[in-house]
Design brief:
By secondary structure, the chain is an alpha+beta fold. It is 45% helix and 15% strand. The protein is built from 8 helices and 6 strands. Strands 2-1-3-6-4-5 form a 6-stranded mixed sheet. The longest helix has 53 residues. The protein is rod-shaped, with a radius of gyration of 42 Å.
Length: 333
């Protein structure tokens, strides 16, 4: 009985050991299979990374096509913007020097007639910035196209001032670019003395400046700039109306500087509100320092006083399309 029981226990132990061995083998096989799958996955991922790192991604045909599409869209947008900005600007007109002179005299007479019709005081010898041609000298042929543009722009600006009901136009200056600057002694007078109260007579050379690049669109620039100086007198309402007309002008006009002078008070106020001297600057400064000039006496606007103004204007001349991209508008249509 004892031997039989011993054999039973030995058989049971051997069976248990066998089961444990089978389970261990199964777990080992399962782990080995999982290891092989993981190893295969890692080897595949490593191979894919090595392939990706080894290849040259540039240029990518897909990326190149996409970037080219975006660039073309940006260029079409820029071309459209420039075309819209250039819609109201003065076109370039080719003509002979003699034809320009005829246009100058016609423009000058037209402005003088418009001034008389609107009751604006303008000196009869006013040359509107083109005093060097008052003697009949013909301009050089290469300068005629730009002179024609400049003359047309000046006419548009001065006409807007007349429509604003200013009292007097006392001076017009432009940037001279043609030939050599005219000698100051030979420059015709733009304003006669006493044309407006509190404003001294100014010759053409006093308002005109020298800039050979005036109005030019150089190189790859998108625009050029015409600069003008205009002096006039009028009530505050006329000044505000003049500024509003410049803001809504068909030309792209920017008021660069505005200086006001009240001849009744002898004060000169610049664009930033600073004092810039007046009819009796030393006396006014001293009075202001000791408080004898009241604050309300230094205020120019809101009183409807006669004001003398000098305004410096910039008129932008835009390129009609980006350089070398004249066909973009048609492509984008």
């Amino acid at each position: 009985m004892t031997a039989m029981r011993r054999r039973v226990w030995i058989g049971a132990a051997a069976g248990a050991v066998a089961l444990l061995c089978v389970a261990a083998v199964a777990l080992l096989a399962r782990g080995w299979l999982a290891y092989r799958r993981a190893e295969a996955g890692l080897n595949g991922a490593r191979a894919e990374l090595e392939r990706l790192y080894a290849r040259n991604p540039f240029p990518s045909e897909e990326n190149v096509k996409e970037e080219q599409r975006k660039e073309a869209a940006l260029r079409r947008e820029l071309a459209g913007l420039l075309a819209r900005l250039a819609e109201g600007q003065t076109p370039e007109i080719e003509q002979s020097p003699a034809r320009f002179m005829a246009q100058f005299w016609d423009t000058r007479q037209s402005l003088l007639n418009a001034a008389r019709e609107r009751g604006v005081s303008v000196p009869e010898d006013m040359a509107f910035g083109f005093g060097r041609y008052m003697t009949g000298n013909l301009p050089n042929s290469p300068d005629v196209m730009r002179l024609t543009q400049q003359l047309t722009i000046m006419q548009a600006l001065v006409s807007s001032l007349f429509e604003a009901r200013i009292s007097a136009l006392t001076g017009v200056g432009r940037e001279e670019f043609e030939g050599e600057a005219a000698p100051e002694t030979a420059a015709p007078v733009e304003r006669r003395r006493g044309a407006a109260a509190g404003v001294a007579a100014t010759s053409a050379s006093a308002l005109n400046t020298r800039n050979p690049q005036a109005g030019l669109i150089e190189g790859d620039a998108l625009y050029g700039v015409w600069r003008f100086k205009i002096e006039f007198t009028g009530r505050e309402a006329a000044l505000l109306e003049a500024l509003n007309r410049m803001a809504e002008h068909r030309l792209f006009v920017v008021v660069k500087t505005l200086r006001l002078d009240s001849s009744e008070r002898g004060l000169d106020v610049g664009a930033e509100g600073g004092r810039a001297g007046g009819r009796d600057e030393a006396k006014t400064a001293a009075a202001s320092a000791d408080g004898s000039v009241a604050r309300d006496e230094r205020i120019l606007t809101g009183r409807d006083l006669p004001l003398s103004a000098r305004v410096e204007l910039e008129v932008y001349q835009f390129r009609k399309s980006p350089p070398g991209q004249e066909d973009l508008l048609e492509e984008g249509a």
